[in-house]
Amino acid sequence: MNLELQLHPGLPVVPHPAAGELLGSWLLRVAQVYGLDLRDLLVCLGAVTPASRTSPSWYALHHSHLRCPQLAAALRRPVELIAAMSAPRCERYWPTELGFCGQCLDEVTAAGASHTWLRGWMHPIALACEKHRQWLEPIATSRLRDVRTVSDFSLLPRRSTEWSAFEWRRESALIDGALWLEHIVTHPAEHQPPWGKTVPSQLAKILSSLIQVLMSPAAADLVRHQLGRSIRNLPERRQRWACQTFRIDDGVTGTVSLAAPDPLRHRQFVFGLLGHYLQLAPSNRAAMGALTTLIASEIPTWHLARWPPAAAEWISPRSARTPPRSRPDRPSTRQPKPRPPVPLFGL
Ligand SMILES: [Zn+2]
Predict the structure, then answer these.
(1) At residue 202, what are phi and psi to the nearest 5 degrees?
(2) How confident is the model at residue 82 (pLDDT cuts 50, 70, 90)?
(3) pLDDT digit string, tens, across residues 206-259
């Protein structure tokens, strides 16, 4: 008889998974009940073999890493639930920083339950908490690797930020923009961009192009003067942004590639600003004239011609009506001229 093919009879006590909880967080809680660390639990349940040399960190656990039928039998839950709780897959690397909402963590423990980590925080484009309308706290992914039990979540560092009324108005606009953009990227069946349904991979390409514009030297003055506060530590004019291309499979939209800043504060700023811009109809963007001009000047018309016409017309109507020129053989070496700072939101 092959013992490996025998299913586990089922653990006597299994804590209920919380709504929206990440698989790794739930398994940490199960392990805590039995006084085991996560890897020993998975070996005991037959979900991994003792000989398997590498075991992903709790936050990156995906059902494809595990023997799901054995795990599902041990936890007395359907395989589909385990798959749905799995972390998204992020290749080649996870962002250097992810985010979490301290208030969400605290509310769970205040109600007498143990800490839980939400699956929604694991997407590189998860930037703000919709429930509390605040930015997620940056946490180094290397720091998450050190977490051994869910009690360690309470030890994660938090930074308190005091916003002035002026700053808060601006941050609120950015948070709304970031949440809106997160919805249309991660839930395309329920949320569509204002120019109409767009294939997720095509949307990711459009966003990556716009993000490149915001991180370009031409945008340095616009970005630095407006929001270059110490909390964000945005790159100076001559510095490069730390940027990565994330290949993300969240189990819903298929694999998309998204080029974006690596530090969370930078992603929050860039996606927030972009979301704020894209939500507005072109006729309502008077307060964002500087950004409109920048996008029109920095995205070549031949590039724009690859986008769905409705998207090009919404994002940069002036360029969309210009006949596309052929792609240059070599990138231009022209140095951008410094631009004077212009208010982004008209605030
Ligand atoms: Zn929250």
Answers:
(1) -70, -40
(2) very high
(3) 999 999 888 888 887 777 655 545 556 677 666 678 888 888 888 877 888 888
197: its two tokens: 């349904």
- Return d(Cα 59, Cα 22) in angstroms, integer: 8
Residue with tokens 């790794």: 24
Map 214-248 to HEC letters.
HCCHHHHHHHHHHHCCCCCCCCCCCCCCCEEEEEE
Show the tokens assigned to 86. Answer: 């799995």
Distance from the first to the final alpha carbon of the chain: 73
Task: Of 188, 191, 175, 196, give the one whose Cα is nearest residue 272.
Answer: 175
Tell how far the Cα of 135 is from the centroid of ligand 1, in angstroms.
9
Tokens of 215: 């991180």
Using one digit for the tens of pLDDT, what is the confidence trace for 29-42? 999 999 999 999 99
Distance between CA atoms of residues 249 and 22, nearest Å: 15
Q: How far is 118 from 20, CA to CA, in rounded Å?
A: 6
257 phi and psi angles, rounded to 5 deg: -105, 130
pTM of the full structure? 0.85
Burial state string for 244-253 with b = 16 or more CB within 10 A and e = fewer than 16: bebebebbeb
Which residue in 36, 74, 79 sits closest to 58, CA to CA? 36
**Cβ distance 42 to 66 under 8 Å?**
yes
Cis-peptide into 158, omega within 30 deg: no
Q: For residue 205, is pLDDT > 60?
A: yes
CA of 267 relative to ligand 1 center, distance in Å: 18
Cα of 83 to ligand 1 centre, how many Å? 24
Q: What is d(CA 256, CA 251) in angstroms, rounded to the nearest whole number?
A: 11
Question: CB of 127 within 8 A of CB of 272?
Answer: yes
Q: How deeply is 222 buried, as exposed, middle or buried, from its count of CB atoms within 10 A (0-12, 13-18, 19+)?
A: buried
How far apart, in whole angstroms, are the C-alpha atoms of residue 338 and residue 331?
20
Distance from the alpha carbon of residue 176 to the mean position of ligand 1, in angstroms: 14
Cα 281 to ligand 1 centroid, rounded to whole Å:
30
